[in-house]
Batch of 4 targets.
Target 1
Amino acid sequence: MIGDAKTLGELIDRAAETWPDHEAIVYEDKRVSYRQLQERANRLAGALFKLGVRKGDKVSVLFTNLPQWAYAEFAIDKIGGIVVPVNTRYSVDEIEYILNHSDSTTLIMMDNFQKTNYVAMAREICPELDASEPGHLKSEKLPFLKNVIVFGDRRYRGTFDFSELIEIREGKVMKDLNKAQEEVRPADIAHLPYTSGTTGKPKGVMTTHQQYIRFNLGFIKGIGKFTEKDRLCVAAPFSHNFGNSQGILTPAFCGAASVIIEAFDARKCLELIEKERCTFFAGSPTMYIKMLRDEHFSKHDLSSLRSGLIAAAPAPVALIEEIVARMGIKTLVNGFGMTENSVGTSMTRPGDPPEVVSKTVGKPLWPDYEIKVIDINTGENLPQGAEGELCTRGPLIMKGYYKMPEETAKLIDQEGWFHTGDMAIIDEGGYIRITGRLKDVFMPGGLNVSPEEVENVLFTHPRVKQVAVLGVPDEVMGEVGAAFVELKEGKTVSDLEIIDFCKGRLANFKVPRHIIFTDDFPMTTSGKIQKFILRDRAIERLGLSC
């Protein structure tokens, strides 16, 4: 295992040196060795450098889970640029916001996936694109954006072709690149993932090279290590810290293969695990449930599976037991993570019983990952076994939110403690049990959704007077959105019309599943809606089980 890499660019160089001919990526019929991965990352880095990308520049990346994600990520890391992951399910408005707020100078993207045309979305955001020379975009909406690089089957006006750039070999540029890579430091920002957090607009989380390195080394050690013989199947999207770390970075530390599935599909995952003899699977409870419920589940040989991670949402004991019994995963771990906490804060350990894996999120990955719970009213530290807000401190904490110092100061106090907004209990063994959330963020399929962001969209509907959005239980997704809507006097609209209105303005996982019309919003004395009361009403009215 590579345990002393200082930056993510150095990581891929060391992996190529240590395991040059080992499979790094398996995607459909393509096999990419670590040497090939490094070479392609180097060539793309050289091309980006020639296009003017320098240390600290933001480069947005919009791909499904493809090998090109890894090429782009390591290329940007080598230059000292900052990766800005863009979720492929985002709407035009959401993509525009992230490109604009991040000050991205370059966008690397796929042209389309299934029914979504990303080039058309880029043109909608930047109508100047077609008339621009590649590399010289002058966008009214995105003044920083100059380069658009597209991976696809054909060329597009105003853009560079990804496949052509990755084949460019220029010795002089490579010398400049090597010099640039030498100037990258462990404490430099590597990625700027955006999270919904607790306010309406997503926030860019400044995360460093050393934070990703520490998390992955801690995870590998905590799960009982991987070797170059392991084959990891990770279904979570690479645009999310969970999928990116497990699917791209973790394998590189130990020479393992990343068996890629472009977008989660239960049947395809089962087929891949069997065909490629995968030893590890990482996914949310929703993903595991869909695989276990697949009508052809019993026909697949999953005997190669040795370990697994189930995370991003609560998992009942019965599900943990079923995964172990039916999928044969002997080491199944659960964990707690936040984008602001370097992907992962804590994790259960091999050998922990199903009750512990289900009801706790384990203990910190490293001794210098400090945790405590505090009284939500006084801020005083609470003893073990007492319930309070979970706070974390140490090298796992983000540098802050990009261009949002006030938001950063609200969550990181003067003593360096990050206030997670989650209610928790820490037991005598140091294990954390999450008991609830101070904030109202809900997590369909493990992805954070800010109610305020959805509410802001619903308030733009011409017939809506008042709205409150919250999460309610769902057997498959863990949680889904429910919107309580009060209409303006004399106005009518159906629940389907409300849902369709959201679909054009929000990513599909943010769109409320349930619409409940009401004119009765329980309020506090200060005028705030009491969402916990609305949640109880929604559960009763919809016939849901907690």
Target 2
Amino acid sequence: MTNTIREIGGADFILAIGTNTTEAHPVIGLQVKKALRGGAVLAVVDPRDTELARLAHHHLRIRPGTDVALLNGLAHVVVAEELWDRDFVAARTEGFEALRETLAAYPPERVAEITGVPADTIRAVARGYARASRASILYTMGLTQHACGTANVLAVANLAMLCGHVGKESSGVNPLRGQNNVQGACDMGALPNVLTGYQSVADEAVRAKFGAAWGAEIPSRPGLTVTEMIEAAGEGRIRAMYVMGENPVLSDPDAGHVTEALKKLDFLVVQDIFLTETAQLAHVVLPAACFAEKDGTFTNTERRVQRVRKAVEPPGRAKADWEIVCLVARALGYPMGYASPAEIMEEIRRLTPSYAGITYERLDRGGLHWPCPAEDHPGTPILHVGKFARGLGKFHPVEHIPPDEMPDEEYPMVLSTGRRLLHYHTGTMTLRTGTLEVRYPEEYLEVNPEDAARLGIESGDLVRVTSRRGLVEVRARVTDVVPPGLVFTSFHFPAVAINRLTNPARDPVAKIPEYKVCAVRVEKAGPAAAV
């Protein structure tokens, strides 16, 4: 996030696109509601009629996979009606004329035909966003999990810069992370092309610095993303895999293929706190400690680094992840001998400029936002104040392209997936609480009443959902939360392994799979039950 969670409550215009905030990020959803109580205008871009959409002044019920067209349409109105921030664009950006040329092809009427959002609504939202004093854009995986996910994010950045809503309080571009330490994991180099603090492996000086610290040669070639690794395992190009705190058998697209690929490995190690569906395939399972059983830090979605303190001892032979990694490294002949998370943090500070000023002593007094380059630096709650990291912000013209897989005669409907308020990820933890699974014991498929009538489906019926990759059976719930032609469910329940259906087609830049648009066929499979 360019701004903090608290600042969302002070915005006077919020554009939420591809985010079901009140269910997937309920704490942040409270800040959205706070902003509404303060008089903010809320525009929600979502095919579904979620709680957030029902709170909105403008619900842009977009056709799945048409976000670039919509964002370009909003920017078109801003330029055509001369609402753009001329001073900001002139002083802090480059590439405006190329963007203007691309936007000319996206008038609201054409965008309405592509997206299904009325032209008048597009104009109203564009005007409201451009004229606001403090406008914040929120997005999550509903925007990124597309074959055009990178283009979607670039289109968001274009709109924010065009209106000058960057580098000031209660504004900015705010991607909401999907898990509590995803930001921290990325910061620590859990990406295939960077080391800590997003220092590129292609940079010779960076490789030399880390090589000297670790006594090892750092490869210059980027590695593979998760879905690329699964593909390589299936093809025999990867023979062994070490999975930590991840459950790809349920969470990755085309999950049947994932299972087969993992079974082809010569050696699979899984390090986790429970025996997940992926761990059940492993040759070796390493029992890890959970968050309450170890010391360390988490970095949350607003870039705030916070201390994690051990509250209880881990059960049995479970150990903290860092301890396990050290033991494995030493068994492999590499002398990884850290004595504590504090010692690891000191190395992070030495090698990572954005974390250089973050110490345990300072964190004991409260969290700090990176970049924090020195011990006397207060941290950076708001990014891009005065200038961008690259100097001038660059506009990237992007074009609408349709989803990789569109409905056809054989698979006439679109499946989209997401999250439910009461459960989390693949249910590894939330299906073991003794409470949440009682409140929400099984998953269901949202089906629009028009589609249900055509298919002879009633709420509670068992339905079979089939894609080009597999099938699942799930109970139906007939509801107008979804529009005609769209069905929706979550990936929380192993009994409804919905990612057996989803499309592994990837964005060409970020390599993120297209979870949000998948062509399916829905058929009645059994009699009704209470839903």
Target 3
Amino acid sequence: MKTVYFNEFNVRMGNATYFPLVSGVLCAAARSQPRLDEAYRFKPFIFHLDSAENVLARYDEAPDVACFSIAMWNEQLSLHVARTLKERWPDCLIVFGGPQLPHHPEEYFEEHPFIDVGVRAEGEEAFMTLLDRNLDSRDFSGVPNVSFRHPETGEFIYNQETPEFERAMDRYPSPYMTGLFDYMFDAHPDIDFQAIIETNRGCPFLCTFCYWGRGGTSRRYRYHAMERVQGELDWCGRNSIRYVFNADSNFGMHKRDPEIGEIIVATKKKYGFPEKFRTCWGKNTDENIFRIAGMLHEHDMEKGITLARQSQNKQVLANIKRGNIKLDTYSSLQRRFNDLDVPVYTEMILGLPGESYASWVDGIEEMLRSGLKNQLFIYQCEAYPNTELGEPAYQEKFGIKLKRLELREIHGSVRDESWVPEYHDIVVETADMPQDDWRRMNRLSMMTMLLHSMKLGVYVMRYMTDRYAVDFTPFIEFVCEQKMAPGTGQRLRREMEIFDAYLNRMMAGEGRGVVMPDHGGIYWDAEEAAFLHLAEDLDGFYEELRDIVCQYLSSEGVSYSEDEISEVVRYQRMRMPGPTLPEQTEWTFSYNLPEYFQRCFGTEPISVERERQALTCKPIDFRGARPEFAKRTILWGRKSGALLVDCDWESLDRLGVTSDIQFGIVEQSQLTPLPRAANLGAE
């Protein structure tokens, strides 16, 4: 029998990693064919990042076929292993596929002469045909989605053929339901396995920065039968899989998706697993998604709902071939989700063609004013193979310049020095964004995420905007440009210096992830690292923030109440977690700030009024354990909206009016809507 090895090196996140879905799908497809199942012995999956030496040690016998699924986090390791295999066993057939392999790989084959076959896009049909042909010959002419090196002449051959489109996807069996992954639990007891499922394939959109739609799959959708979807989820439940990621491109856009949501919830009710379900939500969020998100939230399963924007600028959206839902529709959905306390996060991409510093600032302002309560994630624009943005002609058209960085996967385990380094390319300059502006945009973005997304100033900024009709971004720029009075704001000044040094290292090719040994052996985003720095002395930080707020309002000519601002800052401080318990967990406010802040992001906001309200906070006592603090607040809490400290409040002037802020629930029958003050700058 011939031996087949699968290499799909997934990212390690502490002791967690994903099952090798691509390898499993290909193996299940091949083993469903009697001729292949009899002719080949499929070796155990090699499925996570490691040193090349350790990976090669898994080859306990000569390989006849070695398959590699490559992405940006494992490309160089895959190339290193494949090159070594070819040197040791020249007759081994080396097969590459995955999103990192160019769909027209002639130059790639020239650079890497040890690769025999390249498979583009979907691989099941190609893989089965390759294995079948390999029993008699290595001439793979006519095999759909395949490029190969002719076995006699060495000539590069690109097959034009593509598989016939079939709407139903269940011709090939599930690796979960056929038991291909079952052995892995006993073989790797130290691994906390996470599962990836897909209920359909396809994407109708042509976003120039994305592999889906243009490179990865057809624009037309194909579907797995509901019986298979239910069977895979049931397998996850029975095997106590905590975390399931759904690889659909636009979950919630299809009529049957609410039924899938019901299956997910029913599975958790039955088994207690999966605990969390993560997906890529539909680009044009609608009632379908609102319904599904509500179900998942009710059963504590969602990791946050994406209302992605990427940019607010119409020309930028045209350049990247993307359309956004109208901002008023977006804001309405945002507030409805906020009413249910469903965590929502918005994504923007820094460096898209056509974006300038001015348009970027305007876009952030619009996002913060839209009612965004939970997270604004700002990502670097990356150039991937098989995307329009990755093409030289597109880059030349928009003046795009790239910088290659060493890859440090955010929230992935810190890479061992013995591992093969990986790389990715980010946009650092365009015709509309000189490199100096790229730096300014990054500074503004990191400070925005620190104060808003990491919650350190989310209530304070919302209050200033609402109460005094000032914008968000000028205040953030005030901090970024260090316009504070000399000798004040030292902590934020220090973080800005760290941000600047971080950007300098990026321009030198160092990776984005920040290493903080005292907070666990994983990579953190820059704003997360800043949060962890400041969390060491929150009382000192908020003394400085109060002074900065007063300085800023004075610079804007705003008349303000110092005692009111002091109470706002106190409320903000009490809602923030720290590695140790704070001295103050209860406070009676002279203003209705607990109720005001609870409702300010929803559909029925109120104004600040004189009213005594007592707040009781329930912080977690981490006893100074910084890795646990970082894990609970950021890894588990950032997207899921659980970063803030849970609180209860009650009105001392309106007896019987209470709320548990953990769930954002107020008995509306108990509340009398208060009139909004004329100076609140209501939207």
Target 4
Amino acid sequence: MNKKFLWKIGGEAGFGIMTVGLNFSKIAAHSGYHIFDYTEYPSLIRGGHNTYEVLVSPDIVGASKKTIDLLVCLNKDTFELDKERLARDSMVIYDGDEFAPEGNYQLISLPLRAILKEEEAKEIMLNNIALGASLALMDWDLKYLEEIFIEAFSKKGNDIVEVNKKVARRGFDYIKKNYSELIVKDFPIRQAETKVVLTGNESFSLGSIAADCGLYCAYPMTPASSVQTVLANYAEKTGMVVRHSEDEIAVINTAIGSSWAGVRSAVGTSGGGFALMVEGISLAGMLETPLVIFLSQRPAPATGMPTWTEQGDLLFAVNAGHGDFPKIVLAPGDVQEMFELTVKAFDLADIYQTPVIVLSDKFLSESHQSLDLQKISDFSKNYKPNRGKIVAQVQGQTYQRYQVTDDGISPMLIPGAKGIFYQSNSYEHLENGYTTEAADERIKQADKRNRKLETYLKKDFQKPEIYGDFNKSEIVFISWGSNKGPILEAMKELENASLIHFTHVYPLDQGILIPFFPEGKRYILVENNQTGQFGRLLRGETGIEIKEKLLKYDGRSFWPEEIIKYVKPRRI
């Protein structure tokens, strides 16, 4: 069985749309299935329309699909906004006392507000009536939802737990009694491996903990904000300092100071906040101080569309900072890659004593994906931090902080060693840290710093991953970051297609990458921005030019169907 089922709920903000959506994802995972979910909400303090959709599949899935199988309408707006995504056999739950959908669908009139009134329940509990009805239609058990109620509400009292159970049961029983012929039989509860449901931001947070990050500093900015909340919840247990600074300038300078003192440090932000950090990034480049920067992208310029998605900051990240200095940019494609590359980012920052930027976007940052808990557990158990040339003490009394070396990396002493002179500041310097403006010394230090990139490309650059049978494929997608999921889902419906997926997006090397692009294939660049930024970067760094481009920049991620239609327009 490889059938996929898309459930979506929508309603007015404040009706617990995000909570009930996440609960549906958790219950699907408990029932033995893989999920991918995505939420949409306006950038308003109050009001507006919220939606949450969950794709359920027996196999690992990396993106949603366009056709909705079950649409739960807590208000009329949900139906009006999503009816174009419905098919004739789509099911629509609605309150018949509120409105009547027009169209040839499987209509399910559920007396949501009447049940509320009968149970003397609060209006926010509409969501749990609808969730109970949804579980009945999926032929799943209420026990997982009841366990969630106990975990979430037990501190508020047993009465709250019981009323939530009761309204969910009312929705569940109503479907069983009145719409049993519509119950889906393709997704029976089954035994499966233990899975965890995580967002990209949660995965970055767990990766930071696994990597022994000692300080995370941020000023909240969507869609990176939840990292701070997650890490703060673990701070007492992990010993990590999680600081909410007054602005992004304070954020990056706090982290640089912490890192300079020997603590693994990270910051998080989105494009506008990253802009304020740029001078600090240059400072880290001159100090040669390790730093991990989590940059979760959203549509820009300026405030743009704060709660939507785009990949428009790649070239900004690559070129951030005044002057020439090395930096490394990584771009995970899914939740599993986010965890592993976050851990690697902390190692790379220490090894090369330079800023490492981890690029995400709203699509990856806030979407939940199920993955095998054992994979994360095994990775964490086997991981040992690599701090490169960072040391607690040096032999003798002479210490050259910026010693010129063949690999460009100087021994880095954690300040405070007794009897050792240690100086570093924002000026160009001699090997011992003293300020200099001598031409020959400037060249020595600039060349030394730049050699780090040569060393990285030889030792730690990870070649792009190829998905599909590259030798037999006629069509080759080229992409990076979160486009991975939609492309892989599209490839399930396409013949003779493969993907070259980049996670290490800067620096790049012509000699390493030229063999990936033999002649005779149709190469298609897929990017979630207006100008094909990775294509421009690839051409500038390696001379490889991808002429055919599929670009999307409306604030939404790619549908797999859009990719299929682009390749074979007659199929859809």
